[in-house]
C-alpha cells in the first residue's frame, strides 16, 4: 500500500513538472492524472479481493440441542472445502447472533483453530462424528495465533459470535443436528 502512495506521489510530481517544463495543456494533463489514479486504484481493489479470498460459502441451517432439551436454531455458512476452511471468518467485522460458520472436515481429525486475521471475538464448539459437543473455546480473541481445540479428534467445528456459548448455556455433551451435514448418527 505504501508503494501505491509513493507511485501516486511520483505521478503527481511528474504531472507538475510536465506542466511547468512543457507548458502542457491543462486538459491533457488532467486526463493523465485521472488515468494514473484509476490505475493506482486497480491493485488496491485486487488486494482487497485477495484479502477477502473471494471465497463463497453455501448457507444451511443447524440446531444445537442443549442437555436441558432447549433448541437453538442457527443459520450457518458451511466451510466444506480446504479453501473455505482456510478463509473461515477472516476479515469479518461482525457476526450476528444466531449465525455462525460450520467447518466440516469430512473425517475425524485432531483439529486446532486459531484467530489469524480474525477481527471479532468468537466462540468455538467442537463436535464428535455423532454430533456431540466434545470441546468449547469461549471468547477467542481477534488475531490470537495460539492454536486451540480439544485433545480428542473431531468431525466439525462451529464458530459463533463471542459470548454465544455462555448466553445459550452450551456445554460438553450437547448435540448438533444439521440436515445438510453428514455427521454419523449416534
TrEMBL record:
Coiled-coil annotated spans: none
Name listed for the protein in its UniProt record: DUF192 domain-containing protein
Source species, domain of life: Bacteria
Listed InterPro entries: DUF192 (IPR003795), Saro_0823-like_sf (IPR038695)
Amino acid at each position: 500500500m505504501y508503494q501505491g502512495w509513493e507511485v501516486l506521489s511520483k505521478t503527481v510530481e511528474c504531472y507538475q513538472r510536465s506542466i511547468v517544463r512543457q507548458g502542457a495543456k491543462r486538459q491533457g494533463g488532467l486526463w493523465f492524472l485521472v488515468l494514473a489514479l484509476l490505475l493506482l486504484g486497480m491493485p488496491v481493489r485486487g488486494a482487497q479481493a485477495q484479502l477477502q479470498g473471494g471465497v463463497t460459502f453455501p448457507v444451511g441451517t443447524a440446531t444445537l440441542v442443549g442437555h436441558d432439551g432447549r433448541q437453538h436454531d442457527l443459520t450457518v455458512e458451511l466451510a466444506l472445502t480446504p479453501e473455505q476452511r482456510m478463509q473461515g471468518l477472516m476479515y469479518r467485522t461482525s457476526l450476528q447472533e444466531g449465525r455462525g460458520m460450520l467447518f466440516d472436515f469430512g473425517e475425524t481429525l485432531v483439529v486446532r483453530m486459531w484467530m489469524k486475521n480474525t477481527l471479532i471475538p468468537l466462540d468455538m464448539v467442537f463436535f464428535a462424528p455423532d454430533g456431540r459437543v466434545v470441546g468449547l473455546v469461549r471468547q477467542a480473541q481477534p488475531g490470537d495465533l495460539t492454536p486451540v481445540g480439544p485433545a480428542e479428534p473431531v468431525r466439525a467445528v462451529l464458530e459463533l459470535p463471542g459470548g454465544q456459548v455462555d448466553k445459550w448455556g452450551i456445554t460438553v455433551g450437547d448435540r448438533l443436528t444439521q440436515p445438510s451435514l453428514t455427521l454419523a448418527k449416534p
